[in-house]
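TA notes, week 10

Several of you asked for a full example with nothing omitted. So below is the full record: structure tokens for the whole chain, then the designed sequence directly under it. When grading your own attempts, check the secondary structure regions first.
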């Protein structure tokens, strides 16, 4: 087993650097796609500047994991609301016959799979720096900036950082992950100089971490935390008004910092190539759930017709609303998560200290000095059917013992979801529609049948129940 950090890095770099024949194949496909897209745009009478962006253009992609980003730079005469639809029309025709998935960032774009390689065809406006109309307008300038800064050794360092982040689950700026983008990884290596120096910097993380490569705020650094409230702030070299790290969720940032410390202390290939999660057998699952001493509640629903990026945004928003509902009703939530196969089934998971609460609770009223508040409190509770005892004075405050409206978390969820799918408590529109059609609630090992029939969910739940990051487990 490799234990020296240099040996591990050398081994990983050998694996992730594309060989010459692979590069030739990917670059040939990229050139073909540029010509196809440009030709289709011309046939449709649309003036377009088409070129390759992203990791393939910068030669920072990982072996066996190429993503070809084809950007269609369109004239500003095209209305903003029409940009996505025009680009989709061109893209669909250009990759006709290939498997296609419509994605959504700020506007729609097309993902296709050609010869086993994922291709993204993305629209943007052909504008000068600072005249941005859409978020993707910066991308060609990002590509040019990074290419200008890199040499061959730094490309290898970027590949190490990307593979490390993929291995620990923090790579990808899409909503589902909320992690580090490829461009952000490139900027970190440009700034710190290498993969290991980047890890060392994040192992010493102090918030906020501020990086301003081009010195846009030189002499006025104290303005940066006032403009950007994120724990990691990386000023975009081509746009000083943008934080490249704004999509990085705090949990992903802190996971990276923790993994960086662990790797530097004890280097191991598993940080880059984690062992695959092996689902527990159904019997082991039942034993695990029984031995945890908590209650797991699973809220399942199906058939949401929307693109994955929109789906995950709605899942996370709805998840927050349900967490808030449980907490406002005094159920002690230990952990929670969202899962979806992005096509048919989705699930919210809530781990509670207890499913049931006591029938009664103490409710503190106003202090005795607040005369008018005391009068209203007494009037409300003195003859209420919900009052078990009181009002009485305890430690200078009026106090009552009252009945809880909900003592069962399952009843609470059922009542709030069955009428309008949860719209009234903050569930997102498409999720609420799906829940209103049909939803199921499983408690603890009632999930066993669904678990047995859905391998990806089984892996997810096994991972969730363990709780440890994959790099902290035994191989």
């Amino acid at each position: 087993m490799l234990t020296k950090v240099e040996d591990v890095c050398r081994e990983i770099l050998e694996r992730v650097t594309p060989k010459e024949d692979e590069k030739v194949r990917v670059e040939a496909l990229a050139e073909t796609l540029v010509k196809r897209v440009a030709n289709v745009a011309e046939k449709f009478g649309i003036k377009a500047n088409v070129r390759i962006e992203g990791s393939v253009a910068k030669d920072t992609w990982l072996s066996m994991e190429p993503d070809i980003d084809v950007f269609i730079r369109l004239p500003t005469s095209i209305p903003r609301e029409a940009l996505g639809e025009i680009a989709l029309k061109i893209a669909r025709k250009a990759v006709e016959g290939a498997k296609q998935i419509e994605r959504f960032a700020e506007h729609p774009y097309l993902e296709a799979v050609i010869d086993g390689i994922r291709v993204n065809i993305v629209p943007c406006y052909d504008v000068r720096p600072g005249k941005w109309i859409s978020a993707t307008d910066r991308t060609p300038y990002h590509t040019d900036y990074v290419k200008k800064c890199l040499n061959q050794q730094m490309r290898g360092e970027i590949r190490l950082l990307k593979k490390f982040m993929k291995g620990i689950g923090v790579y990808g700026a899409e909503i589902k992950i909320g992690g580090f983008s490829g461009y952000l990884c490139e900027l970190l290596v440009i700034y710190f100089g290498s993969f290991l120096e980047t890890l060392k910097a994040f192992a010493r993380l102090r918030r906020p971490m501020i990086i301003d490569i081009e010195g846009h705020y030189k002499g006025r650094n104290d303005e940066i935390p006032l403009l950007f409230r994120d724990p990691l702030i990386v000023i975009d070299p081509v746009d000083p008004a943008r934080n490249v790290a704004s999509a990085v969720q705090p949990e992903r940032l802190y996971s990276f910092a923790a993994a960086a410390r662990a790797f530097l202390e004890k280097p191991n290939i598993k940080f880059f190539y984690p062992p695959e999660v092996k689902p527990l057998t159904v019997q082991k699952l039942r034993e695990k759930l029984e031995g945890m001493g908590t209650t797991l509640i699973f809220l399942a629903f199906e058939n949401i017709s929307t693109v994955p990026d929109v789906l995950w945004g709605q899942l996370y928003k709805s998840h927050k609303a349900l967490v808030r509902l449980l907490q406002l009703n005094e159920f002690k939530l230990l952990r929670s998560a969202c899962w979806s196969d992005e096509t048919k089934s989705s699930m919210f998971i809530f781990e509670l200290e207890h499913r049931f609460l006591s029938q009664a609770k103490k409710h503190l009223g106003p202090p005795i000095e607040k005369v008018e508040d005391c009068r209203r409190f007494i009037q409300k509770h003195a003859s209420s059917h919900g009052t078990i005892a009181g009002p009485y004075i305890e430690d200078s405050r009026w106090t009552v013992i009252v009945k809880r409206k909900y003592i069962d978390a399952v009843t609470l969820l059922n009542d709030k979801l069955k009428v309008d799918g949860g719209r009234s408590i903050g569930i997102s529109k498409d999720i609420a529609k799906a829940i209103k059609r049909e939803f199921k609630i499983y408690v603890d090992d009632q999930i066993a049948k669904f678990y047995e029939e859905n391998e990806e969910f089984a892996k997810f739940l096994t991972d969730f129940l363990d709780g440890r990051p994959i790099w902290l487990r035994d191989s």
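The CA atoms of residues 2 and 378 lie 72 Å apart. Use that as a sanity check on your answer.
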